[in-house]
Amino acid sequence: MIDKLMHKMTIFILTIALIIPIIHVYAQENEVTVNISSLKVRSGPGLTYDIIGTVGQNDKLTVIGKESDWLHIKFGNSTGWVASWYTKSESIEMTNKQVVSKVNKLNVRSEPSLSSAVIGQLQEGSQISAFKTEGDWIEILFNDQKGWIHSEYVTIVDQVIKDEPKVETFSTGEFFLVSVDVLNVRSKADLSSKNIGQVLKDESFPIIEKNHNWVKIQLENGKKGWVYSFYGSYTEQPKPSKSITTTPNETIKILYNGTNLRSQSTTSSDVVDRVDAGQSFTVLEKIDDWYKIELTNNTIAYVASWVVSSNDTLPTSTKEPLAKREKGTLKGLTLVIDAGHGGNDRGTTGALGTDEKDITLLTAELLASKLQAAGANVMMTRESDVYVDLRKRVSIAHQAAADAFISLHYDAIENSSVHGFTTYYMHNYQKELASYVHKELGDMVSLNDRGIQQGNYLVLRENKQKAILIELGYLSNPSEERQLTTAQFREQATRGIYNGVINYFDAQIN
C-alpha cells in the first residue's frame, strides 16, 4: 500500500515539474526602467494573462526573475510580469576588467538579450576585455565589433596594465573615425576619468597620440580628449561631412504612437519629446536618414525617416482592383520582401560557419525575381549587405501600402538536433497568408514541418499590413545546414513561397 502511494506521489511530482514553465531567477535583484508612457503589468508571462495594473514612463522596476521575453517584477505588495521590450536596463561601466569564459562555445550576441542575433562564440578559457554591464549581460569587443555575453558563464578578472605604457605620438596624417552612435570623450585614458564630451558615428578627428587601447583626439572646439579605440578605426583622410540637404516646404507625418524625437541625428541620443501618429512637422533639413524639425516650444529635434511619411515620399498607388487581376498572376500587387539581418547584424552563425544574413539575401533575391515575373511590384528592404533598422523595414511596407510583407530567416538553437521550418504571424489578419504560404512551402521542401505559430516579432507586431516571417530551417543542425545552403534548396523554398502567395491572392478574386 505504501509503495503504491509513493509511486503515485512520484508520478504527481514529475507531472507538475513538466508542466511548470522554467523561470530564470536572478541571483541578485536588478532594476530596469520603463521606456513607454504606460506599460501593462500582467498576472503571468504573456499577452493572454490578466492585466493587474500599469506602470509609467521612467518608473524603476525591481526584477526578480525572467521567462523568455517577460520580466517578473515586484509590484506593490505582490509581483507581476511586464514585457521586457518596453524596458531598458541600467548600464554600469567596468574599469580595467576582463572576462574569462567558463564554458566552451559561449554565444556572443548583438544585443543584451537571448532573442538577439548570435555573432560568434568564445571558447573555454578565452579572455577578453569587458566594458560595461547591463543586467545579467556584459559588453565585450568581439572581432572588432560590440558584443554581449551572459555573466553566468564567465569569470570577471582585473586587466593587467603595464606600469610604463608605450605612448606613440603623431603630429599629422592620421584620423580616428567613430563607428558607434555615441562615444564618450574622457579627460584621461581611463574609463573612470571625467567625461568631457561626446562624438557621434561617422565623425572623424585628428589623432594626437595613442596609449594602448586609447586614442587622444582633437575636437572641433580645440579641446583634446581620450576615446576607446575599439569603438572606431584609423584612417588617413578625414571622413566627409554628413549629407545635409535643405527641403523647402517639405512636411513629414508621424506614423506611430510614442515616436521618439531626439536631440541628435542618432538613435543613442537623448529623447527630447514623444509624439503620436498623425502629427505633422515642417522639415528644416535632412541629415542622412534623419529629419531636423522645430517643435512648438522652439526646441530643435530630430526624427528618423523610417518612422514618418513625407510629402515627397508618400506612395502614389497605381494598383488595379483585385477583381481585374487574372488568376495565376500578381499584376497590380505590391509585395515587400525582407531579407533578415545584414551589415553588422550577422544573424545566427551555422554549425559549419554559415552567416544567416548571407543566405537570407540570396533567398530574397530569388523569391523577388519569381514574384516580379508574375507581375508584382516587388520592393526589398535591403539589396546588399547593409544593416536596416527593424522599424524602417516595417515603415517600407506601410509607405508602400504593401499587399504582403514576407520576412525570410534561418533558425538556430543550442540543441543541434532540432530541425525543420516554421511560419510565424502575429495578428489574425496575417494568419490566412501564413497558412497558404506554409502549406505550399511544405509541399516543396523535404524538411520537418514545425507548423504555423504566433510570433511576437517587431516586423509582425508593428506591421499594419499582412505580414509573415518564415524560419526556413535550422543552421544549428549541421546536416540541415548543408541542405539549406544549396541552390537546389533555395529554388524549392522560393517556389513554395511563390505558389503560396499566388494561391492566397487567387482566393481573393471572386
UniProtKB/TrEMBL annotation:
One GO term (biological process): peptidoglycan catabolic process
Superkingdom, natural source: Bacteria
Cross-referenced CDD domains: MurNAc-LAA (cd02696)
InterPro entries: MurNAc-LAA_cat, N-acetylmuramoyl-L-ala_amidase, N-acetylmuramoyl_amidase_3, SH3-like_bac-type
Alphabetical UniProt keywords: Cell wall biogenesis/degradation, Hydrolase
Record field: transmembrane: none
Ranges of residues in domain SH3b: 29-91, 95-158, 173-236, 247-311
GO molecular function, one term: N-acetylmuramoyl-L-alanine amidase activity
Coiled-coil annotated spans: none
PANTHER family per UniProt: CELL WALL AMIDASE LYTH-RELATED (PTHR30404:SF7), N-ACETYLMURAMOYL-L-ALANINE AMIDASE (PTHR30404)
The name this protein goes by in its record: N-acetylmuramoyl-L-alanine amidase
